[in-house]
Every structure is written in C-alpha cells, then in structure tokens.
From TrEMBL:
UniProt cross-references to InterPro entries, sorted A to Z: Bact_Beta-galactosidase, Beta-gal/glucu_dom_sf, Galactose-bd-like_sf, GH, Glyco_hydro_2, Glyco_hydro_2_AS, Glyco_hydro_2_cat, Glyco_hydro_2_CS
Native source organism of the sequence: Escherichia coli
Keywords noted in UniProt: Glycosidase, Hydrolase
Domain Beta-galactosidase: 446-532
Protein name: beta-galactosidase
MF annotations from Gene Ontology: beta-galactosidase activity
Amino acid sequence: GDNLLCVRVMQWADSTYVEDQDMWWSAGIFRDVYLVGKHLTHINDFTVRTDFDEAYCDATLSCEVVLENLAASPVVTTLEYTLFDGERVVHSSAIDHLAIEKLTSASFAFTVEQPQQWSAESPYLYHLVMTLKDANGNVLEVVPQRVGFRDIKVRDGLFWINNRYVMLHGVNRHDNDHRKGRAVGMDRVEKDLQLMKQHNINSVRTAHYPNDPRFYELCDIYGLFVMAETDVESHGFANVGDISRITDDPQWEKVYVERIVRHIHAQKNHPSIIIWSLGNESGYGCNIRAMYHAAKALDDTRLVHYEEDRDAEVVDIISTMYTRVPLMNEFGEYPHPKPRIICEYAHAMGNGPGGLTEYQNVFYKHDCIQGHYVWEWCDHGIQAQDDHGNVWYKFGGDYGDYPNNYNFCLDGLIYSDQTPGPGLKEYKQVIAPVKIHARDLTRGELKVENKLWFTTLDDYTLHAEVRAEGETLATQQIKLRDVAPNSEAPLQITLPQLDAREAFLNITVTKDSRTRYSEAGHPIATYQFPLKENTAQPVPFAPNNARPLTLEDDRLSCTVRGYNFAITFSKMSGKPTSWQV
C-alpha cells in the first residue's frame, strides 16, 4: 500500500540543552531514513552473547529473541538458527512449535569448540542466521547477524579482553564532511577507519553521540575497539557556574535514561563495542547514576564510562581529560580498584599535538592506564572557494555567526579533506606495536618489543639499512618470529665495517600480509640509530665586507641590519613585517 513518511525538522528543542557538543550546529536530516516492511509475525529484537570457558578454549553462544505477532490470533512458528564460519556450518538447530502471542520471548544456546576469537588485531567474524517460518514451512523472515567471540572482564584493577591485557590507542571522532557538513557518506567513514588502522590506532570514541549503524559494522570488520558514546552533553551550564544543573535534576532523568537505553538496544550486538559511554562534559548527578543502572540492567557484558564521575562512584573506569604528564603519572600511581583511561588529551590544534612520547612513556609505565584518546581525529573545516578558485576551509564566524569559537574546530590529526597531518604520523610512530631498542650497537645487538596484545610478530619483517653520508653500505631483512604478545626478545643484525664518515642504522618494520586497509609490506614503524658521529669541525662563515649587526629601534617596529640583509619586526605582533636582501 501507500506509505506517507512525515518528518518535522526542528533547529531548537528541549533536547538542545543536552546536545551541546563542540561541533557545527546544523539542523536537518543527516543520515538515511528507512521504511521497513515486515510480516505481521516477525523477529522484533534479539541479543547475542558469547561466553568462554575458564581456559578460553571453547565458548557458548547464547541468544535471547523477542518475537512479535501483530495478527489477531496466536501464530505457531519455527525458529531455525545456524552459525556459519564462511560457508561451513558450525551449528544448526531449531525451536519448533513456538506459539507467538503479541510479544513472546525465546532463547537458544550452544557450545562452539575452539572458536576464532575476535579482537582489534584479529577481527574474525562468524555469521548467525535466524529464519522464522510459519506452521506450513513458509519463510516469514530471515535475520543475519555477524558474531565475534569476545568477552570483557575486570580483574585486579585492570580490564581484560579474551583474558588478555589490552591498551587502547585511540582517537575521538566526530562526524563531519568538508563538503556536506554533518551528512557524512559511508565512503568517507570507511576511509577514516582505513586511515586509523594504517596508523596503528586500535580504538575510537564516537565523540559525542551514536554513529551511523554501518559505522559499527565496519569497526567489527576492520577491527577497532569502540567506546560508544551516548548523545548527552550539557557543558553550556558551566557558563552560569552550574554544569550539573540538569544532570542532577530528577525531572530530566527520563531524557537521560532514554538515550542510553535506545543506544544499547540499537548497537548491542557489535563485538567491536567494548565500552558504553554515558555522555560528555555534563557534570555529575542523579541522572548519570540512573543511566548507569539502566545500562547495566540491559547489558552487563561491557564496561561503562563517564569522565565526570571522577571517583568512579558508579562507572567501571576512572577517566580524566587533558591531564598534564606529571599529574598523569600521579594518576597512574593513585590506588584504586578500577582501571583508568584518559578520554581526551594531546589537543591536535595548530602545530599540535605535542608531548606524545612523554605521555606514552607514562602509559606504558602504569598498567592501570589502559586507554588514551587524542582530541581529535579530523578538522571540521567546510570547503569553500575564493573568486580565483583557490580552496579554503571555513570555521566559526565565516558564516556571519556570532558568538562563535573561531577556529577551534580545526584541531584534528587529519585535515578536513582527510589528508593525514604531521601529528598523525607522529602518533603512528609513538603507538607503533613493534618497538626496536638499541642494546649494544657496536655488536649489532638490538631488542624487539611486541606491543600487540593478542598476536605474535610472525607476520612482520624488519628491514635494516646502514647509510653513511648518503651512501648505502649494507641492507638486511629479518623475519620477526617467536615474539609472543606483550613480550620482548633479543635481535642480532650484521653491521658493515665503518669508515670515518657519519653513519646511521635505519630500520623499517613492515607487515607482511595484505589486509583490508593496507597492501602487503605496509610500514608500521621506523627507527634510526647513530652508528658513528660526524667528527668534522664547523668552519665559521666569513663573508667579504662582514660587519656587526645593528639595531634600529622605532616606536612601532625594530629593524636588525647586517651584511646584505635587513629584517623588520612589528612591536605589536612580534612578527616580521619585511625582509630585505
């Protein structure tokens, strides 16, 4: 029949108070809208869960199914379910004579022997197919679902994924397209995830709202641990000195709780999601506590995060943001029974981020600091052209908007058009999963450290090159074998005889196999070690007619003059205003 879909687009509403994220505030429909037709008797909802035995060898797959019947009388059905590993059937069975009246619950569970385990390093997926049939065997509905065997536990103040210690090397990602604003196509989303994987990132926080459902599917496929954040942010109340104004007001409880409930119901079957985040920068109070309890009632298999529950009164992780390195060290030493992360740090604006190595040293020093998320992934500039066809990017104020935050939205590791910036390249190196350290270079002795948490280094190769003042003296390739996850091993290389020239050992570590996000031989880290210092003495430059520098000091500027040049600086800005040669 005919269907009429009516949508009322509102720029401002009561919900505006809890949607105060730092981003372009646009009104409209930015994502696809679906009209779904189903049989009167159908699968309304389902929840897939995987649990391992104590040895993390075999697992149980269980599924709670809610079936709905909109017909006037009960319907007898059969629910068939099959788990596939590729084309191979792992398990197949059915629930027969299932009478459905309005909403009816059913469940099934079965053991899977030695399943491949899902992680960001090895995102192995099975396929569960549920088929609902009527009493005559006619198919009413077929529902497929990707399944990853993955669990999360908290033990000894740490969280463990599949019984392995993990550190999350993450970024905060907003939805933004430099041509279409908040209407972000899946080609751009997929490129974001490919770039993250290419640059050693293993986790993403959906700052600060749920993403397109297909985003989570891609994270399942590519292998990214997701902190799935709920659409709650009311930091504007900080401007009146009461950031917890509505967060601690019971009248707003329904608004807060509905958002986390909808979020979990929509995305609960994705193995990539390991953390639910209750929101961002909204103070703390009764409504956060209510959100936590609602989340745990729906899903007790994942961690719950909220940064402004500073003492982790209810949430499962202690969180902080923009904490300086010395205080981060104290944060790691602070005794607490819960794991901790820094959900925003290393602000990537301008020439930032800085201090990445110093931060990472602290993270590796304290096992309890298990996650860090750079702010942020991408600049939010909107592409424009001037009268000469030159491309530039708009930010706050460029549309005549006031008040605004000026260029505060240009703070990403990649530029608005998804070109990687120097900050991303630095971050890639700092979080590289293979670390190479010099032990005794005179003997060619190195140490290799595996900072993967689930995988050996059997799929990686070390490429060594010795260069002296531009000349390659020797090359060598070494397969990195038998280095267990989160461990280290000695490594021996052969060095050539060196002469008096300055020489360096250059090392590149590559991943051997082709992946969804990279070709075979993709470089994941580079290192350089000096083998022989430059002993040449610098010769002072003595031009003809050289004379001492002079300074001319005026009211608004000063000029430095020397041999064949003069530079003038503004006293107002401190910047050079002219340079004559």
